[in-house]
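Newbie here. three chains, one complex. Structure please?
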Amino acid sequence: MAYWLLKSEPGEFSLDDMERAGVEPWDGVRNYQARNWIRDAMQVGDQAFFYHSNCKEPAIVGIVSVASEPYPDPTQFDPQDKHFDPKSDPRRPRWYLVDVRFERRLARPILLKELKARPELAELPLVRRGNRLSVMPVTEAQWRFILRLENAATKA
DNA sequence: GCCAACGTTGGC
DNA sequence: GCCAACGTTGGC
């Protein structure tokens, strides 16, 4: 089983929205590196952190799981959709997605600030300079470390 | 609102 | 294939 981190802007789709939806197609990913992880590496049952980006308190706030095999993102073929890609050929789709299932909320948000302060997470793509990936891998060691932070007191 | 970092586009 | 211009991301 692999571990991931998925970014979402709470103004667009928050953890509350995710919980309400239960299962949601993770559409709109339009970055090739992120696409490759989705299409070539994600498997049903993989676990992922749900991260709130571009907001007042950027933080990991919940856990979701991969609920489907990768399949072509239908929004790329919909001219009315914000993520329409006229250059994508339906016979050879450019963009893929998986369905994502709400698992649980974390006991507390783990702020980006806090993640950045931990040397154990220095290699986590999220805290690396200039990172803009919306889908990124998390190692098992990083996953476990972050879960330990969940139940630890906030660093003074 | 600012701006650094990065990806993409398009002229050549 | 190079690279400048431009657009987007996303923390602050």
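Moderator note: The beta strands of chain A are 3-8, 23-25, 47-52, 59-66, 71-72, 96-97, 99-111, 135-138. Residues 7, 9, 53-55, 58, 112, 130-132, 134 of chain A lie near DNA strand C (CB under 10 Å from a C1'). Thread marked as resolved.
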